[in-house]
Each structure stands twice: as structure tokens, then as C-alpha cells.
Amino acid sequence: MPIPASQPLPPSADRAAARAGESGPPHSAKAESPGTVTDRLVEANRHYATDFTDPGMDARPVLKVAVVSCMDARIDLHAALGLELGDCHTIRNAGGVVTDDIIRSLTISQRALGTRSVVLIHHTGCGLLSLTEDFRHELEAEVGQRPTWAVEAFKDLDDDVRQSMQRVRTSPFLPHRDDVRGFVFDVTTGLLREIDPRP
Ligand SMILES: [Zn+2]
User: Fold this and answer.
1) Where is this region: Disordered (predicted)?
2) How far is the CA of 94 from the centre of ligand 1 (A)?
3) Which domains does the chain have, with CATH numbers?
4) Cα(92) to centroid of ligand 1, in Å?
């Protein structure tokens, strides 16, 4: 059975159609221009660079915090958390799950770039809620090769945030494991709900 190209995630077709009519900000990649979407991004970057001045920042995040979040397109981490350029590391993947590669990034973030706090963010309506490990089996059946990675699908958002907190707190590579907090972001209200590490 082929892997579905996309899971049944909002926004609805109506919302998508409404958004397609938006003109967006001046540098928006949605602006009408020929070429692929990447061509539009490159064009938007040319405009961005025109107004850009070197902020002269250090690579070390000002707030000494790393935010691990799902890659979901509806989450604007900087806006949602009141963050500005240079404030934090943002590390994102499907689900915001703490995988080995997230630990790799957090280890570099803490040991080489001075972060001390970790914020973990899952969200309502996550695509990982509708997947199972069958995804791997179907993938293997289709392409003839078993992925080396786990899907890391989950059925319970709160439990998976706790699992992620636990993985950070028990990682021997991370020197700073005291300030680790986990949240669920509601994509309909924009509000974070904190998860108690003890169920
Ligand atoms: Zn998600």
C-alpha cells in the first residue's frame, strides 16, 4: 500500500483557498512570480537582504535556551513565545520528538553555545497522532529497504511530552538538565499548556 502523500491535517480546503488569496508581507514568497516555490523563496531572500543589516550578534543564544518543537507549519515559535532574532536555538522535527539527532543538537547547543534551558513543544492536531509504526512496514514494503529510524508516532500528546522530557533529563551528554519543561501548543487558540512531568 503506498504511503499517503499527506495526512488529513487542517487547515481545511476552505482556509487554504482563503489563504491562497492573501498577498502576504512585502517579502512574502507567495508574491506572484514565475518558477518553482524555491525560486520564489530565493527571490524573497533578495528583497530580505536588501533591507538587512548585520546585527553583529554572537552565535550564542541571548536567552540561553533551546526550544525543541514539531515542524508543523502552523507554529510560529518566535511569535508564540515572544522571541527575537538571536534569543534561542530552535530545533524542529516531525512531532518535536526527542530523537538521537535532537540530543545531538542539544548537546552542541549546551556544550558549545552556552544554552542552559530546554523547552519542549508538541501540539494539538499533530500528524504523528494519526501514524503508527505500520508506516515503517508500509515504507519497507514499497521501497524494499527498512528505515533505520523509528516513526516515533504517539497516541497521547501529554505522555509523549513526558517521554521527551525524560529523554532530555536522562541524557548523559547534556550538562544542564535541571530546567527542562514541556508543553502542548493549541493550534486553534495559540496557547501553551504545560505538562507535569509526573502523570
Ligand atoms: Zn506536529
Assistant:
1) 1-36
2) 6
3) 10-52 (no CATH), 57-195 (3.40.1050.10)
4) 10
